[in-house]
Amino acid sequence: MRKVVTGILALCMVSAIMAEPVLALPDTVKGDVNGDGVINTRDLTMMKKYLLGEDTEIDTDGADLNGDQKINVADMIYLTGILTEAVQPPQDPAEPKDPEPENSKEPKDPAEQKDPEEKNSDPALIAEMNKTAKNIFNTAVNAQTYLDYLHPGRKPASDMSVLKDADSSELTELIKLGLELPDGTRWKVFVMNSEIKGCICTSDGVTGAYPNEIPMSVSVDYDKLDDTHPEYYSEVTIDWKTVYPEGVSKDENIKDYVPKTTNELNQTAEMLYNIITTLNQEAETAGRTLLSGVADKYTGTVPDGIIDANYLEKIYRLANLSPKNTKFAVEMADGEIVGCICSDSYGKVSGAYPNTIPQTMNIPYTADNARPSGDIAFDWKQAFSEFISDDPVQSALPDYPEKSVSYYNSTAREVFTNAQTILQEKEAEGKEVKDGVYTETSELFDRITGQKVKYYVQVKNYEVVCCMVSGGDLTRSGAYPASIPQNMDIPFDEFREDKYPYNNADFKPDWKAIFPEYIKGDAEQPNQPVQSIAYFNSAAKKVFASVQTMLQEYETAGKEVPDGIYTSDSELFKELAADYKFTVKIKDYVVLGAAVGCEERSGAYPVSVPNLLNVPFDKMLSEITANYDTDWYELYPDAIMDFKTFSAEMGVDYTYTPLSYYWIKKAAVNSANANAKSVFITAQTVAQEFETNGVVVDGIFDSSNTSSEFAKTLKENLTWHEYDWSVKIENNVVVGACCSTTSAYGYTGAYPCYVPSECLVTYNGYNKLCEGNHKSDEWLSAGHLIMP
Hints:
Elements: H1 2-16, E1 23-24, E2 38-39, H2 41-51, H3 60-63, H4 73-83, H5 116-119, H6 123-150, E3 160-164, H7 170-177, E4 186-192, E5 195-203, E6 206-210, H8 231-234, H9 240-243, H10 262-285, E7 300-303, H11 309-319, E8 326-333, E9 336-344, E10 350-353, H12 370-373, H13 380-383, H14 392-395, H15 405-428, E11 436-439, E12 454-460, E13 463-470, E14 477-480, H16 511-514, H17 533-556, E15 564-567, E16 581-587, E17 590-597, E18 602-605, H18 621-625, H19 632-635, H20 643-650, H21 658-692, E19 699-702, H22 709-717, E20 725-730, E21 733-740, E22 748-751, E23 759-760, H23 766-769, E24 784-785
Antiparallel strand pairs: 1-2, 3-4, 4-5, 5-6, 7-8, 8-9, 9-10, 11-12, 12-13, 13-14, 15-16, 16-17, 17-18, 19-20, 20-21, 21-22, 23-24
């Protein structure tokens, strides 16, 4: 029940930070919790405190909205509906009533209580069940991902199915394990090609769905919606009112959806920005344009209405958004997307990216505001001061949601890297850059991050020494290369040069020793957050490359580096700044393997640690990761995460969209194409060597061939062994190659005629795939198109 209650409180907070509706009413009325004669968000705040057990005096008659002689969450939901204008306030029992319309959702006099089926058809409850469906949906996505990691050799199923709460499959059992729902909640999850497409659920006669949410004006009978129409709740372009007219309420006062908050719309704007940017790049590569009747290198504001219809439909599909309930516009500069603004169907509140709108503001939507959405220097509060909320709850919030120290450390690293790139360009151009401290207002570094943050960048001899970053309230900061511990909140003002001399060349401060007054009281909180396994794998790859570069310098300088295993404590590599320990294996001035991690977990390169395994860090890991035949699951069978831990790793706010599936699969195909090209080039080199030695090579050879000298030689010359590959050779000339991403998943690439990135082909060797399939547009006959 905990997650459902949390969702209800979140819904209340949504209404509490909207522009405050005030309804003047006579005497004691339903909804007037504090007895001041009006219904507003102060009543909602007081009711919330009362339900949480705080010592609060309330008007019990006004708080009992549904007249059941109880004050509980149902009354809070009803009050939320009033404040969001989703339902009308109930009339006082003492006042004469107008004739009730048929199917009225108004609460009756206590003496004329509704039966349970009627009471639970309140519109706000449908909105709440939509949130429950989203929770089930995301849990199902995590469960499917978990199974993909747990069974890496299993091929994706290419069928459609509807899973139900009563089923006992491996997937449904994991879903149920990750959920905490009220007794009696039933649900269905639609799966297609091993991808979770949608969810519908019901409890106490109220039905909700995700991603195609059910409007609050439509009451769906869960039992009458058979399994032949899963597209109703999975396809966001389908209108519930059209496909389910029998459930549409006759009460015209009920709105369809709960209004969104500024923060929710900021997140939507960011998602749209990323999707449209990617599609714009794809269109440019294909020689097309996203826009209808507009030049390719267009500069200016683009409302959704002038985006090509095919691309517009794809944008909504990838974002899991309904065209009827979301408006958006983007700002372009010379054909590039630089900003995005959006609104829900009401148009009373906007969100933007990368220049996000403060959560203390409710700016009505207009497409023209796409221009400032791409300008980080633009001040929303100064330009739109009339739209700062007068709701005391909302106006009391900080302008921007609070970010963690870890977030600011990460942003500091981004600023550091981008600033270093700029300095290298300036040095190559022969332009002078003076030593000193630069800020976000400096012309040199004024647009090096898409985040609205403040930062100091210390420069010396065209090198970035360090970087400090903070957010809007400046009470919490991050730094790089010496990260600030996450149990410290150091105000940004403390980093002024006259207070802290951070302009030294060896930037390795002990933050706790310098700023002991800013250590948080939570002794249980670790100094640094435990990063994801993917983070450690990426870090290991960077260490691998950095050490290899240093070895080349040492070899050139004639400095001896004996073979062996070296750690981050080694004198040879101490200059490599790292937040975590690392180990590398070296032979003949060549790095064979690298691993990075902490006590809890590690990452490795070139043989990465699977994202499901918490492998403790050990200096011998670099020995293991250098072996291409490493089976991590066999070596660390006790390191497999349980599903709940894995779900937590995915993040509390993780929301799946088809975009993630679409891009991951496309990336896998592109990777396989690159691998095939590598096989092709290496095979050609080996074939020429055989020809020089008078040996004729002709035929088809693959990675499983153990009898052919050519295949064995080619395998020895390839730098990796975890992929399946095959080549076709005619008289010592390579005419084609194909390769899989991994032998487990088998997404196929080819060269010289690439497999289109939208086409998934199960790997089964060159003989079956490449004969007669040399043209890229013919690959579809051997696979199937990825459908976002």
